[in-house]
């Protein structure tokens, strides 16, 4: 007979109770809605940081690309006049310094949660995202997220991308976000081969 996984999970943070992160979660109030469009393979990934963003920021929403109704609603609500995409492309502007198109007055900031390859696929499958003004980091800080391997230089976790954007654009104190990510890393007991090599 198959053995079912009966490991208990926290009803609040949804991590296993043995690695509950609730004590490391503090709220971050921001003047914009954070929308994370998530590749389906990221939803149940143990090292995914989008969940931490939603735990820390009350007006953050995670939408799976498989939820057609939610994606369609997002598409209807996110217009070039009220929303922006944080994703590097040929037309994106750097967030650092003066912006040709200020984003402080926008209502929604959209982030893509997934590997670089997955994120590219999400953009290609949702052409409406290409109509939004987009922004990138000209000088991305070095990531402190070491428990997930990548070969991309200056690649940030989703949480770090959100934190850097809020810090650069709104001057938000994002220490609570970084504290949550650090707590996740401290709880992680995976093999060293899964860690990022600097």
Structural features, described:
By secondary structure, the chain is an alpha/beta fold. It has one domain: Alpha/beta knot, CATH 3.40.1280. The chain has helices at residues 50-56, 68-77, 116-125, 158-170, 175-187; strands at 33-38, 60-64, 83-86, 93-94, 108-113, 134-136. The protein has a six-stranded parallel sheet with strand order 2-1-5-3-6-4, sandwiched between helices. Mean pLDDT is 85; it is low at 191-198.
Write the layout of secondary structure elements.
Blueprint: E1 33-38, H1 50-56, E2 60-64, H2 68-77, E3 83-86, E4 93-94, E5 108-113, H3 116-125, E6 134-136, H4 158-170, H5 175-187
Parallel strand pairs: 1-2, 1-5, 3-5, 3-6, 4-6
Biggest β-sheet: strands ordered side by side in the sheet: 2-1-5-3-6-4
Helix coverage percent of residues? Answer: 25-40%
What overall geometry do the principal axes of the alpha carbons give? globular
Let me know the average pLDDT: 85
Give the termini distance in whole angstroms. 44 Å
Count of distinct strands: 6
What's the architecture, going by CATH? 3-Layer(aba) Sandwich
Count of helix runs? 5
Uncertain runs with pLDDT below 50, 5 residues or more? 191-198
- Indicate the proportion of strand residues: 5-15%
- CA-based gyration radius: 17 Å
CATH class: Alpha Beta
